[in-house]
């Protein structure tokens, strides 16, 4: 593809590609610091995007830091004040740990959420342009120096900037252009993801975020705005032969049928709209910073939606990227040091929840130690609070599986599941192997050192496609 002649060349401090969660958080933070920011998005805004959009208290705290929480709450999603998880017949309920005074969760559909975030960036002083597709990254030697793009009228423009931020999702145009598209760590998910909205029943418990597990299936019900409830299922992944026309409808309805308590929660509800699907998912870390460029959000790091961490991390690392880079934006050498430190910080802070997410995303039948964990947490409020806190990042997974607690779980599992003692012992041995493998990965691949990326070209690289946007859980 050959671009038409450039009709305009602009200069700004920061150009952000992608105007959704990570992009708007980055833009708003830079703009409030007095920096000139232009945001480009290929989509018409506001618009929907593939996302399961549950926000734990930590995610809502990020909206509060951006001064966007009040506007998001005005969209009408209920406050979810209780978490409930059920497996093997054991139900675990708890409140949410408080983050910056917020002790509730919310499930907010992306069209409204993203519109609020883009408006927040504009109100902070950023310029947001929709239907502008980036076609090339511009270079000054080996340094990223801007982008070339096509606007809605088909005109080609160039924006020169001290920093190019790729907040354009898993299929990131910017990641591809700077040679960072291939992750340095990838873990395929063992689950597919299907979700749909339902018109909630009048007597539904709209203050509870609920999850059910039966066998290898997992399903959720999260009340959201406009009187709807988002119901997601994650059955074990299937080969391509199990997909094709009608597969999403079939797999979604079959999974709900295998989750009787989810089916009961949806009784009296009317499904609204089509079933959405995300298959072939992998969690990953990409190289996320280099000379003049950075990748917050899914463009640089993605976790399976089973733990619903994507929006929080997009907001958090978009904001902290801007906070890290603002004061050194005019000094290329200092900027590169700051970007590298920001990248290392994200790896270090996210690696434990990355491992935890990958465990839950295996798509396996409930293991003996998992069953015992649910059995114990059903009668232990402190354990239930720790579990809820892991999802909101106020507790670490290591607090759940301390050596003494893991030993106790194994002992109780042996007593309660005596008939399956070989399976209990095999599960305990596997747990030891898993912990060892995660430790090795943490000390090697995820130790926080930058992974080398492919050297960028010395001339502008023209691309024919742009990423379709962010997919967050």
TrEMBL record:
Biased composition (Low complexity): 460-473
Start and end residues of each stretch annotated as Disordered: 442-473
Top-level taxon in the UniProt lineage: Bacteria
Coiled-coil residue windows: none
Pfam families tied to this protein: FAD_binding_3
Cross-referenced Gene3D superfamilies: FAD/NAD(P)-binding domain
Gene Ontology MF terms in the entry: FAD binding
TM ranges: none
Domain FAD-binding: 11-311
InterPro entries: FAD-bd (IPR002938), FAD/NAD-bd_sf (IPR036188), Geranylgeranyl_reductase (IPR050407)
Name this polypeptide is given: Flavin-dependent dehydrogenase
Top-level taxonomy: Bacteria, Bacillati, Actinomycetota, Actinomycetes, Mycobacteriales
């Amino acid at each position: 593809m050959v671009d038409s002649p450039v009709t305009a060349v602009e200069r700004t401090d920061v150009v952000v590609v992608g105007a959704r969660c990570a992009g708007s958080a980055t833009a708003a933070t830079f703009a409030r610091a007095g920096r000139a920011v232009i945001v480009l998005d290929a989509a018409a805004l506001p618009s929907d995007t593939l996302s399961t959009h549950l926000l734990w208290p930590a995610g809502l705290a990020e909206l509060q830091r951006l001064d966007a929480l009040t506007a998001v709450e005005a969209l009408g999603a209920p406050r979810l004040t209780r978490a409930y998880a059920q497996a093997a017949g054991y139900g675990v309920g708890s409140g949410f740990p408080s983050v910056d005074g917020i002790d509730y969760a919310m499930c907010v559909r992306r069209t409204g959420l993203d519109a609020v975030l883009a408006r927040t960036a504009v109100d902070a002083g950023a310029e947001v342009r929709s239907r502008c597709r980036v076609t090339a990254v511009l270079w000054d030697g080996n340094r990223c120096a801007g982008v070339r793009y096509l606007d809605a009228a088909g005109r080609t423009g160039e924006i020169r900037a001290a920093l190019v931020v790729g907040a354009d999702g898993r299929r990131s145009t910017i990641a591809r252009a700077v040679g960072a598209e291939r992750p340095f760590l990838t873990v395929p998910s063992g689950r597919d993801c299907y979700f749909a909205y339902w018109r909630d029943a009048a007597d539904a418990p709209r203050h509870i975020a609920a999850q059910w597990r039966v066998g290898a299936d997992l399903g959720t019900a999260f009340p959201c705005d406009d009187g709807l409830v988002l119901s997601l299922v994650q059955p074990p992944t299937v080969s391509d032969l199990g997909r094709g026309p009608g597969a999403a409808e079939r797999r979604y309805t079959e999974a709900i049928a295998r989750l009787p308590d989810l089916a009961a929660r949806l009784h009296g509800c009317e499904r609204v709209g089509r079933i959405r699907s995300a298959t072939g998912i992998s969690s990953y870390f990409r190289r996320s910073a280099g000379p003049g460029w950075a990748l917050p959000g899914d463009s640089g790091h993605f976790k399976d939606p089973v733990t619903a961490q994507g929006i929080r991390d997009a907001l958090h690392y978009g904001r902290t990227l801007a906070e890290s880079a603002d004061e050194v934006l005019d000094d290329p050498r200092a900027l590169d040091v700051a970007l590298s430190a920001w990248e290392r910080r994200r790896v270090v802070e996210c690696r434990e929840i990355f491992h935890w997410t990958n465990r839950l995303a295996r798509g396996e039948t409930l293991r003996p130690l998992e069953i015992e964990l649910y059995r114990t947490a059903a009668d232990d409020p402190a354990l239930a609070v720790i579990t809820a806190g892991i999802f909101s990042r106020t507790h670490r997974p290591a607090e759940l599986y301390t050596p003494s607690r893991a030993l106790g779980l194994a002992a109780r599992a042996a007593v309660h599941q005596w008939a399956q003692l070989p399976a209990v012992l095999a599960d305990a041995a596997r747990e030891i192997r898993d912990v060892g493998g995660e430790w090795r990965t943490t000390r090697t691949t995820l130790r926080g050192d930058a992974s080398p990326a492919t050297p960028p070209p010395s001339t502008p690289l023209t691309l024919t496609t742009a990423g379709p946007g962010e997919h967050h859980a």
